[in-house]
Amino acid sequence: MGKKSYLAMRTEQETSDVIVSDIKDLSKAAKKLANHAIKLVGLGFGTSFLEWLASFAAIYLLILDRTNWRTNILTGLLIPYIFLSLPSILFSLFRGEVGKWIAFVAVILRLFFPRRFPDWLEMPGALILLIVVAPSLFASTLRSSWVGVLICLVIACYLLQEHIRASGGFRNSFTKAHGISNTIGIILLFVYPAWALVIDFL
């Protein structure tokens, strides 16, 4: 009788030890899962934040500072950059009815009222037209792939190099008129695709 109760106590003790060990393993696994999820969400948030920042920097360089850029850099390269890096919410908005109406009004103004159509609106108008009429191969497949991000990186590197060369060196690119805003804008263009490529290959 004493042997049976001793064996029962031993079995219960082993069972409770196994359960405690399993609970510890589960809590460790849950902590690891939580840490990895937080890291991934943080990285994804960083990528989308930089995407928004780079898009607005490119739009700023395209519209607000066009007079300074015309002589220095091929502003037309900002159009494919914005096309490939524009956040999905804005891209789908401009690809829908809103974009069609904007493109329609822009074409009508350009055709029938060319004197009333300002020069600085040509590039934004071309961007809207490109977004509206682009085939789905470019609008969906290329935009969401690493190839589109790589194209953005090449454009940003080229623009940064041209801007520094036109300013007469990296230090001068910060000291000339509108130099700081242009240089920071181009660096933001460079940071987003570089970060997105790193995240893609992690």
UniProtKB/TrEMBL annotation:
Any GO CC annotation of this UniProt entry: membrane
Record keywords: Transmembrane helix included?
Answer: yes
- Show the stretches that span the lipid bilayer: 40-61, 73-92, 120-138, 144-160, 180-199
Mode of membrane association: Multi-pass membrane protein
Supply the alphabetized keyword list. Membrane, Transmembrane, Transmembrane helix
Q: Does the keyword Cell membrane apply?
A: no
* InterPro entries according to UniProt: COR413 (IPR008892)
* Protein name stated in the entry: Uncharacterized protein
